[in-house]
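Retro notes, item 3 of 5
We never archived the inputs for the alpha-D-glucopyranose complex last cycle. Fixing that now. Sequence and ligand:
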Amino acid sequence: MSLNNVQHLHQSFSEEEQKVQQLLSAMTLSEKIGQMSQFSGNEGFISPDLAEAVKAGKVGSVLNEVDVNVVNQLQHIAVNETRLGIPLLIGRDVIHGFKTIMPIPLGQAASWSKDLVKQGAKVAAIEAKTRGINWTFAPMIDISRDPRWGRIAESFGEDPFLSSVLGVAMVQGFQGNSLKDKGSIAACAKHFAGYGASESGRDYNTANIPENELRNVYLPPFKAVADAGVATFMASFSDLNGVPASGNEWLMKQVLRKEWQYQGFVVSDWDSIRQLSVHGFTQDDKQSAYEAVNAGIDMEMVSSTYQNHIEDLIADGKLIIAQINTMVANILTVKFKLGLFENPFTNQDDLPKVLNQQHLAIAKQSALQSCVLLKNSANTLPINLNKTNSIAVIGPLANDGYEQLGTWIFDGEGKDSKNCLDAIKDVVNGDAEIHFEQALSNTRSKDTQYFTNAVATAEKSDVAILFLGEESILSGEAHCRSNIDLPGCQEQLIEAIAKTNTPIILVVMAGRPLTLTNIIDKVDSVLYAWHPGTMGGPAIADLLFGKQSPSGKLPVTFPRNVGQIPMYYAHKHTGKPASQDMYVHMDDIPQRAPQTSLGMAATHLDTHFSPLFPFGFGLSYTHFKYQNLLLSTDKLKFNQPLKVTVEVLNTGDIDADEIVQLYLRDLVGSVTRPVKELKGFERVHIKAGETKTVTFTLDTKDLAFFDRNMRFNAEPGEFLLWIGGNCEAQLMASFSLEEEH
Ligand code: GLC
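Structure as it came back at the time:
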């Protein structure tokens, strides 16, 4: 290579890349393998083994150490006591808050508010940074269409569009404008890919997803955050179509690197590289290390196949040093981008205090906007204190600051929560009697001995507010349920109280959609609060007493029973679609009915084919009317934007937010297309009696999909477009995309 080319090469390399290459050229193979290795911390001290490994340059990252002094000591060893002084990445699962806990991600998704998701992530990043954490393993953007799966709680739900928008918002919140900012940490898109399709909703189970479905449904949120600059990816545990993600070269090289030109680095999941042999994908750890390096998993989380076998694999000629150099460069680049070489140490005085009022205010706003009003018959809500003298507050989740935090809380503490009972007392402020009955020791209890007290208390009250649902341990990783009714004997408690004439308001805290069919007719109102986080109490109390109207919308379908799963709104039409006129319930089938009389459609005999509550659904204390849906054209050309406007009227007497949703249907495609797909949404605040005009602009790419040949294309033809307050919106228009000339 001529001098001129070298100079050109240097000029084309950024300063950062030159630093990386310079450092790389000085590193031994052992030190390179060290950067590719993540160790688990000792949680509050440094074991001699860990200290020795760091000193020997065998550690590139440590996870699960949150004592800032210990973290600073680890950085001191890495920077001042090793040959090259490469600082450490300090990782932690900061999934929905560090000390100030936001609603679980599924709850945040119900807010449909990218601003709040971004603010919540920023709060989490700042608070995590006070402990020296510079890398979080979030956002989790696995498309989740099976509420049996415990990790649906960590996701943004079933829809690729919503998950993409909110996933990008979370990355922006964590990473800020620059990773070097004091309050920024590196984010991690996980779990790449297809983890949400774990068969039967059992965690870690096989995921078989046809490539077309993978590309059109499961990959888009990952592509969106990759394009938004997420610093890292995490490989999934899953066996994806027979090739576990942590050894899946097609996914990690062909898709992530070649097609998406992704520049960050990929970390395995915990021990997921060693598990390649457990899958039966490899013979042993050495082959696992080979397959994972070959696939391009840059860093190994906790297991030690890289440390133990890469040197041999290179000596055997199975791997080449160039592969290792590329992987180490990916890791070093993130460390440079984080500014760790300039300053690897944490000074807590440089950052805001955790749990400060601003952070708590954001957590409350997030909880307020996450709650979904599913039922409100006879306008039982909001509670009118002028007409209420006695309130019964019943249930094990009414005053449990720990359980309201939800799953994936490593550092949040129940003592910092504001629980619902206390918050109700604050709002009522002596204007009515409040009688609390826990009734059950926990949500799984089958002990009905305190029901009598609960029923008596409800009997003498003007309204009964029940706080029921799932403890946080019943969702999250490895916590899947085959029956998603209210656990324990909570349904019986509802039935017992329903025998009184007292109106019942059910507040549900859960990490997933629950099947509420058995009790939905026994209560007057249902407010779904997910696990609402540190400020869940004040938020729910404000909603119950009408300080603000609920505005959340479901990010996931609520099935009538578990037998309907998988159930999601963006399903295919099929050749014999379910329809009301074709639906026959088994109880209505005449005795000895001949085979052909049963009606032939995609339905069950024992359950109506509709969900209990559809995607995008959520009530308000007011009502919204949609009218005057107008398109800029009904004959759209390729690359011509389509402008869509609609008027939304608040016909009630309460100011409130509405989440206006736009759905599309591509009637004919080279592969079958969903009956509806979310393509736009906007949260708007509309005063009582006022009208707002909402505008959306769709581009040709919004009509595109991966076709029969896996090409991302829009195809000419007819489209239907709906706008409304949920996926069953009726206000419709149509247009055609004309042939491209
Ligand atoms: C877990 C999870 C992953 C998490 C990692 C580190 O097993 O699958 O989401 O980030 O290990 O805790």
